[in-house]
């Protein structure tokens, strides 16, 4: 007897064959005497073995292929997402916290991986089993098949309803877990702050609240899962009862009417296939929700993936490259507001010229826009109006990566990466001008990390360095030299592993002043034509600051240096001092010129001298410092003007290091 009778083999996927072979076996049992049963079933059992082996192979192939596909897809999305994030301009991150980016990436990728891998294959296989099972069932015993179709909605309702509740409670548990994780990680990062403010018990209370919520939501989830499983078995057993009842009725009718088209095997096939098919469909029904969530997650990531950056610092094709940079800078009619606060204007038609090769200092009260000026120069943001020129070229016409390679920045928050001191200083060489190819290669091929590992072992850095290539040696020597210029060599050499010592998370293993020295070394090592120092020495003591100031003067020779400062002592030797207030340049000139002019700058000098003392003058000055509008009043009230030039009408008395 041929399996399936007249049914074309091509429409029947392999899964349904197993049911058909059961039919043959059962039919054999009824057709043959006990003595002949062994021989009659032998062939059918063999068929079943072949189908089992084929199933194993096909399942293995499709599950492994879909799993590999899911992993490859997720890897590609992760790479593209990170690349796309790193391309975005800084304004994008003002409204998109870095923590949010990483948690969004991780959770969305997990969802996509869950929704793509083997589940797609299982879903397709189950659907094909389902279709084939119903085709066979309707061909064999249409009446029985028609009745058993009724169990499908029950299965689907149980499956989708149950999964909806389970998903709801899982999401709540995940949300509380995420809040807990963020509290724990923030607390661990700020242990000192928590001790200082005695905030431990408050944190414990917050954690306990989350624990309670997690317990409640987990209990609800467990109840939903239990109800779902109970219903599954309830429907399955009820269906069995219905199927056997209807099947036996069909058989009885067939025997009574002497029709030969229904036998035990056919009835069993239909029952076996349809119960299996319905069960399988109910099992994969929740996958539809998972696929839906995966599509939503992918749409979310696509928003960032497909966003084109307004200022792309990674592109090497767009914009001009200049052969040599003199460093003359001009800001004309500048208006600017940050994307996160578009209604607040930082500059109102600011005009400023910064001469090439000179040291220009920018001063002004906090919030006057000094750092914003630096950010605009590096094209971290673009002005809303006005133009910025570098050597007569508009900044927007230059390649962004090239522009940034020409500027060495020391920013006020001195961010250090969690790696060795050598790695941090060498970071300044990435995208640095004038680096030869083999030196550039050492920054990316892991040679420096290997060297650091060896130096953290038993070999001193010098000894480990001797077996390295000359390119690595040149890079390391450059870093050591930069550290010396930045006054960092002394404290580095006192560390057990010297340059191979780790700086810790965000440089937490060092003091503020030491971090500033390392950040300065990182900028110095770049050897860029423009040096941009934003509060570069604010955390140093006056002795350290003086020595760094002298070192910077040496490094700054022949370069355009822009020093943004609060401490006026830092800019005694500046060629050009710019005073910013209320989004405008209110004064510009040499220190001498500004003091003679007797304007805002000359008023700031005695104020700074006095704020370090406890005299009544100092108190008066402190209250005057609250606004530059009050400076004039404060200046008149101060008796000692100790920063005036020798030829001014009132000779200065130098009382402090300013
Ligand atoms: N990323 C940002 N998004 C929105 N507003 C910002 C952003 N950065 C700075 N600002 C605002 O721009 C103004 C100028 O800030 P900026 O940092 O340039 O001042 P600053 O002169 O460097 O001050 P300080 O001397 O305190 O460093 C401030 O009012 C500040 O609140
Ligand atoms: Mg600033």
Automatic annotation (TrEMBL):
The keyword Membrane applies. Keywords: ATP-binding, Membrane, Nucleotide-binding, Transmembrane, Transmembrane helix. The chain crosses the membrane at residues 45-69, 120-139, 145-166, 222-245, 265-282. Residues 609-658 are annotated as: Disordered. Residues 329-607 form the ABC transporter domain. Coiled coil: none annotated. One of its GO terms (biological process) is oligopeptide export from mitochondrion. PANTHER family: ATP-DEPENDENT PERMEASE MDL1, MITOCHONDRIAL, ATP-DEPENDENT TRANSLOCASE ABCB1-LIKE. This is ABC multidrug transporter SidT.
């Amino acid at each position: 007897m041929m399996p399936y009778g007249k049914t074309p083999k091509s429409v029947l996927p392999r899964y349904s064959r197993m049911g058909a072979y059961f039919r043959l076996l059962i039919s054999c049992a009824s057709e043959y005497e006990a003595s002949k049963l062994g021989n009659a079933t032998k062939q059918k059992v063999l068929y079943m073995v072949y189908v089992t082996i084929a199933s194993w192979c096909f399942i293995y192939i499709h599950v492994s292929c879909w799993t590999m596909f899911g992993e490859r897809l997720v890897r590609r999305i992760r790479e593209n997402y990170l690349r796309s994030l790193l391309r975005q301009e800084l304004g994008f991150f003002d409204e998109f916290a870095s923590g949010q980016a990483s948690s969004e990436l991780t959770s969305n990728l997990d969802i996509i991986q869950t929704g793509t891998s083997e589940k797609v294959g299982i879903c397709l296989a189950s659907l094909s089993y389902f279709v084939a099972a119903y085709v066979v069932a309707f061909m064999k015993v249409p009446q029985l098949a028609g009745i058993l179709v009724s169990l499908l909605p029950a299965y689907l309702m149980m499956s989708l309803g149950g999964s909806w509740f389970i998903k709801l409670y899982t999401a709540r548990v995940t949300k509380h877990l995420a809040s807990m994780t963020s509290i724990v990680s923030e607390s661990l990062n700020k242990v000192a702050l928590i001790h200082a403010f005695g905030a431990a018990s408050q944190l414990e209370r917050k954690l306990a609240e989350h624990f309670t919520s997690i317990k409640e939501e987990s209990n609800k989830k467990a109840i939903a899962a239990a109800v779902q499983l109970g219903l599954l078995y309830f429907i399955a057993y009820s269906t069995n009862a219905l199927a056997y009842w209807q099947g036996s009725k069909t058989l009885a009718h067939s025997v009574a009417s002497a029709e030969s088209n229904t036998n035990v095997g056919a009835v069993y096939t239909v029952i076996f296939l349809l119960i299996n098919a319905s069960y399988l469909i109910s099992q994969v029904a929740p996958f539809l929700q998972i696929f839906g969530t995966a599509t939503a997650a992918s749409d979310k990531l696509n928003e960032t993936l497909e966003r084109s950056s307004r200022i792309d610092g990674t592109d090497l094709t767009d914009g001009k490259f200049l052969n040599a940079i003199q460093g003359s800078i001009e800001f004309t009619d500048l208006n600017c507001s940050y994307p996160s606060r578009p209604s607040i204007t930082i500059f109102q038609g600011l005009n400023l010229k910064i001469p090439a090769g000179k040291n220009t200092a920018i001063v002004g009260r906090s919030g006057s826009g000094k750092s914003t000026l630096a950010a605009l120069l590096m094209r971290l943001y673009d002005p809303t109006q006005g133009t910025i020129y570098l050597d007569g070229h508009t900044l927007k016409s230059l390649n962004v990566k090239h522009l940034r390679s020409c500027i060495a920045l020391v920013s006020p928050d001195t961010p250090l990466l969690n790696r060795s001191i050598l790695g941090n200083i060498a970071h300044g060489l990435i995208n640095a001008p004038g680096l030869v190819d083999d030196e550039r290669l050492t920054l990316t091929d892991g040679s420096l990390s290997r060297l650091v590992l060896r130096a953290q072992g038993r070999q001193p850095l010098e000894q480990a360095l001797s077996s390295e290539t000359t390119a690595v040696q040149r890079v390391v020597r450059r870093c050591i030299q930069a550290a010396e210029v930045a006054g960092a060599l002394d404290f580095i050499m006192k560390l057990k592993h010297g340059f191979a010592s780790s700086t810790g998370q965000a440089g937490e293993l060092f003091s503020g002043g030491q971090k500033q020295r390392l950040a300065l070394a990182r900028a110095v090592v770049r050897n860029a034509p423009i040096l941009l120092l934003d509060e570069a020495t604010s955390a140093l003591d006056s002795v350290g600051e003086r020595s760094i100031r002298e070192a910077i003067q040496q490094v700054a020779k022949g370069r355009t240096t822009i020093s943004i400062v609060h401490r006026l002592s830092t800019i005694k030797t500046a060629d050009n001092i710019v005073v910013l207030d209320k989004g405008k340049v209110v004064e510009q000139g040499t220190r001498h010129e500004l003091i003679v002019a007797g304007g805002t700058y000359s008023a700031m000098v005695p104020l700074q001298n006095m704020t370090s003392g406890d005299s009544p003058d100092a108190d008066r000055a402190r209250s005057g410092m609250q606004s530059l509008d009050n400076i004039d009043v404060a200046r008149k009230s101060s008796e000692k003007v100790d920063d005036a030039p020798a030829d001014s009408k009132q000779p200065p008395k130098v009382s402090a290091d300013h």
